[in-house]
Design brief:
Layout (H helix, E strand, L loop, with lengths): L1 E5 L5 E2 L1 E6 L2 E12 L5 E6 L2 E5 L20 E7 L3 E8 L6 E5 L5 E7 L4 E8 L14 E3 L7 E3 L3 E3 L2 H5 L7 E3 L11 E9 L6 E4 L4 H10 L5 E6 L5 E6 L6 E3 L5 E7 L1 H11 L3 H29 L31 H7 L8 E4 L4 E6 L5 E6 L7 H14 L8 E7 L2 E7 L6 H5 L2 H4 L4 H21 L3 E3 L8 E3 L5 E3 L6 E3 L5 E3 L12 H6 L1 E3 H17 L15 H10 L17 H14 L10 H9 L21 E2 L19 E2 L2
Parallel strand pairs: 12-20
Antiparallel strand pairs: 1-2, 1-8, 3-4, 4-5, 5-6, 7-8, 9-10, 10-11, 12-13, 14-15, 16-20, 16-21, 17-19, 18-19, 18-21, 22-23, 23-24, 24-26, 25-26, 27-30, 28-29, 31-32, 33-34
Helix pairs in contact: 9-11, 9-14, 11-13
C-alpha cells in the first residue's frame, strides 16, 4: 500500500474515512501527506490537522518510534523530484493486514486472526493525551508519563501560569530571555528523546552535516532550532525550524535530539544547573559508584542467603494464573521478616488498622528508614485469600505503571502471608467520593484527572503490559489516591491473565462486586476486557455524580445510577447528574463528554463497548468523534450459578456494591 503525492501527475493518494460504519460515502476524516517543509503524514478533520506522524528520519517516522519493532512489516519512504510517498509491505504473505481511518477519526492498523476469524487492532493513533496536535502549545513538551503532562522546554516559562496550574498547557510557553542574534551570543540546548516539532514551516538541506546545520541556524535570525534529518549511519541532513516549535513529545527510551536556540543568559543557566563544578562532581560520582557497588553486592548476598522468595514452592491456582505464564521468570521480591513488619505496625495495633476485606485486615506501618507502608495480612479464616495472595504477588511483581499501586515486598513466615505496599496517604477513592464533607475536596479538575488516570492504568493492563490482564474487581474502594490525588488501581487478587489468542473466557466461578459487574459476567460467567470497561463506566458515573450505583432514586423511580443517568441523557438533562458539591464550577462540555463516555462503557452488549485505548483517546481529545451510547445493562433478576469473591459475608445480592462469594443458584 502506498500513500502520498506523485509530483509528476499530481495524484494524491490518501485514506478517507467512511461517513459511518454503514455508510461508505466519504467522511470528515482522512490521512494524507503534507509535503510542505519536511514531509509528514497528517490526520485531518476537514481542513484541520488532528495528529501527525512526524518527519521520516531514515528508519521510521519521528512520532512512531515503535515502527522498528514490527518484524512482520517493511516500511519505506521515498522523497525525490518524482514522488513523496510512504508505503509498507508484509514479510509473511500469509498475514492479512489493513490500514484504515475509521468513522471516529482514528487511524488503525489491524491484522486478521485466522483462528478467531476476526480483525485484531495492531496499532492505532491518536493513542493517548499527547497525540492530539500541539497539546502543550508552542515550546511546550508533552510527556504522557508525567502529571501534569505538559512542561516547558529549558529557557521557557508558561505563557499562562493560571491555565498551567489548571493542567491546561495549550497556550504553550514563552522565552525567559529574548534572543540576541545580531551580537552572535545565542546558543543551543539539547532536548533528547523527542518527537521532532511540526515541520510544516522548516528548511531542509540533505547535503549538510550536523555542525554545518548548527552554523547555518546561528546565521539565520529566524531559526529557532535544528536537528539531523537522518539518524542512521552517524547522522546526516539538516532540518531548521523557522518559527515556533509546536507539537513536541517526550519519550522514555526512543526519539531524537533537538537543538533549541536560547539566549546566552538561558544557556548559562542551563549549564550551571546541569554541570556546575564538573571536576568535583566527577569525583563525587566515582565515590558514590564505588559505594553503590559495595552496597549492591552486600544486598545481593543478603537477599540470596535470607530473602529469596521462591514462588514456585507453592502451586498456583488453576483458575487464576498457571505456572506456564512465568516459566523461566525470576519472581523475586524483597522478603520482610515478621518481626520487622510487626515493629513497623506497632504489633498490628488496632490504632494502625486501615480497614479489612475478604483477604484480611490492612495496617499502616513505618519502616526503620521512615518509609510508610500498608500491610495486607492474610486472615486465617479467609477462604479465597491464599489464591488471591499468590495471584497478587505474581501479578504486581510484573507490573510497573504510575496508575497501579506499587508492591514493596511480602512476608512469608510460618503461617503468615502478608503483602507490603506503598502507603497511599489519601486512602481510597470511595472515602472521598461518598462522603458529603470530603467530596467537596474533589473539584472537577481532580475528578477528571482521576478518571483519565484510571483509564490509562487499564490500557496498560489490557494491552501495554507484558500480559493481557483483566482486573475483574474495579470499583471505587480499589482505587487508591496518593498525596497528589493520582489514582492507583489496587487489589489484583481476582485478576486474570489472558493468553495471546484469548478474547473472552467462560467461568462458573464469578468473582467481583455486584453493581460493577457487567451483565454477561454476572449472569453467564463470561468475562473479557469489556468486563473491565463496564466497571470503569460505572466508576466514571459515580465519580461525576458522587453517588453509588445502587438503591432507588426517589426522584427518578429507577433502580440504579445507570438507569438514572440513561434517563437524564435521553431527556438531554445530563448535567443534573453532576455532584451538587461541584456547584456550577465545571466545564459543561467536558462533563457531558465524560458522561457520554461512561454510558458508552456500560452498554448492555460487550461488543458495543469501546476498548480502553479508545476511551483514553475520547477523554484526551476535543476533536475525536464519540458515538452515541445505547441502553446500558441495568442488571437483571437472574442469579449466577456460582459467585465468589474475597467477601466473607453472604448478604443479599440486591446490595449491588458488595463483593459476593460462594452463593449457590436456586
Amino acid at each position: 500500500m502506498k500513500l502520498g503525492v506523485d509530483l509528476t501527475s499530481g495524484l494524491n493518494r490518501n485514506l478517507t474515512a467512511w461517513k459511518s460504519s454503514s455508510d461508505p460515502s466519504p467522511g470528515e476524516y482522512c490521512n494524507a501527506m503534507d509535503i510542505d517543509g519536511d514531509p509528514e503524514l497528517f490526520l485531518w478533520d476537514g481542513t484541520r490537522k488532528l495528529w501527525r506522524t512526524g518527519p521520516w528520519n531514515g528508519q521510521h517516522f519521528s512520532g512512531i518510534p515503535g515502527t522498528t519493532t514490527y518484524q512482520g512489516f517493511i516500511f519505506s519512504f521515498v522523497n525525490n523530484k518524482e514522488e513523496v510517498t510512504y508505503s509498507y509491505d508484509i514479510v509473511n504473505q500469509s498475514l492479512v493486514s489493513r490500514l484504515v481511518v475509521n468513522e471516529s477519526g482514528v487511524l488503525q492498523r489491524s491484522v486478521w486472526l485466522a483462528g478467531n476469524g476476526g480483525w485484531n487492532i495492531f496499532w492505532f493513533a491518536p493513542m493517548d493525551q499527547c497525540d492530539p496536535l500541539s497539546t502543550c502549545g508552542p515550546y511546550g513538551a508533552c510527556d504522557p508519563n508525567n502529571s501534569p503532562i505538559c512542561e516547558c522546554l529549558q529557557g521557557f516559562t508558561p505563557k499562562s501560569p493560571a491555565n498551567w496550574e489548571l493542567r491546561d498547557g495549550s497556550d504553550g510557553c514563552v522565552r525567559k530571555t529574548k534572543l540576541d542574534c545580531k551580537n552572535g551570543t545565542d546558543g543551543f540546548v539539547t532536548v533528547s528523546r523527542v518527537k521532532l516539532p511540526d515541520t510544516s514551516n522548516c528548511s531542509v538541506d540533505m547535503s549538510m552535516n550536523l555542525d554545518e546545520c548548527k552554523a547555518m541556524c546561528l546565521k539565520n535570525c529566524s531559526c529557532t532550532a535544528y536537528a539531523g534529518a537522518i539518524i542512521g549511519g552517524g547522522g546526516s541532513g539538516c532540518i531548521m525550524w523557522l518559527s515556533e516549535l509546536t507539537d513536541i513529545r517526550l519519550y522514555t527510551d526512543s526519539g531524537q535530539d533537538l537543538y533549541v536556540r536560547l539566549a546566552a543568559a538561558d544557556i548559562a543557566a542551563a549549564q550551571s544547573h546541569g554541570s556546575g563544578h564538573a571536576p568535583i562532581a566527577i569525583i563525587v560520582v566515582l565515590v558514590l559508584v564505588v559505594l553503590l557497588l559495595v552496597c549492591v553486592g552486600f544486598f545481593l548476598w543478603r537477599r540470596k542467603k535470607r530473602r529469596r522468595v521462591m514462588l514456585g514452592a507453592t502451586s498456583l491456582s488453576d483458575q487464576n494464573i498457571s505456572e506456564e505464564h512465568f516459566e523461566g521468570d525470576d519472581l523475586e521480591l524483597p522478603l520482610f521478616e515478621l518481626g520487622n513488619v510487626a515493629a513497623a505496625t506497632d504489633n498490628f495495633s488496632i490504632l494502625n488498622k486501615l480497614g479489612e476485606g475478604g483477604f484480611g485486615p490492612v495496617y499502616k506501618g513505618k519502616l526503620g528508614d521512615g518509609q510508610e507502608i500498608a500491610v495486607k495480612r492474610l486472615a486465617k479464616t479467609s477462604v479465597q485469600g491464599l489464591d488471591e495472595f499468590k495471584n497478587e504477588v505474581v501479578l504486581i511483581a510484573k507490573l510497573q505503571h504510575r496508575n497501579l499501586v506499587r508492591l514493596v515486598g511480602c512476608c512469608i513466615q510460618g503461617e503468615e502471608r502478608m503483602l507490603i505496599y506503598e502507603y497511599m496517604v489519601n486512602k481510597s477513592l470511595d472515602a472521598f467520593l461518598f462522603d458529603k464533607e470530603k467530596s467537596a475536596l474533589l473539584n472537577w479538575q481532580t475528578r477528571y484527572h482521576i478518571i483519565v488516570g484510571i483509564a490509562r492504568g487499564l490500557v496498560y493492563l489490557h494491552q501495554d503490559s507484558r500480559f493481557r490482564i483483566i482486573h475483574r474487581d474495579l470499583k471505587a474502594s480499589n482505587v487508591l489516591l496518593d498525596k497528589e490525588m493520582n489514582p492507583k488501581i489496587s487489589d489484583f487478587g481476582m485478576a486474570r491473565i489472558f493468553g495471546g489468542d484469548e478474547t473472552e473466557v467462560n467461568t462458573r466461578r464469578v468473582v467481583g462486586t455486584y453493581g460493577y459487574m457487567s451483565p454477561e459476567y454476572a449472569m453467564d460467567g463470561v468475562f473479557s476486557v469489556k468486563s473491565d470497561v463496564f466497571s470503569f463506566g460505572v466508576l466514571v458515573l459515580e465519580i461525576i455524580s458522587g453517588k453509588k450505583n445502587r438503591g432507588v432514586y426517589a426522584h427518578s423511580s429507577h433502580l440504579n445510577l445507570l438507569a438514572h443517568a440513561w434517563s437524564l441523557w435521553n431527556e438531554e438533562k445530563s448535567l443534573q447528574l453532576v455532584d451538587e458539591s461541584l456547584g456550577y464550577s465545571f466545564p459543561a462540555n467536558e462533563v457531558i463528554k465524560c458522561i457520554k463516555v461512561g454510558l458508552l462503557c456500560v452498554q448492555e452488549r460487550p461488543e458495543d463497548r469501546p476498548l480502553m485505548s479508545s476511551v483514553v483517546l475520547m477523554l484526551g481529545s476535543d476533536s475525536a468523534a464519540i458515538p452515541n451510547p445505547r441502553q446500558p445493562g441495568f442488571g437483571t433478576r437472574r442469579i449466577p450459578l456460582e459467585v465468589e469473591s474475597s467477601s466473607s459475608k453472604q448478604d443479599s445480592c440486591t446490595l449491588n456494591s458488595m463483593s459476593v462469594t460462594m452463593l449457590q443458584g436456586r
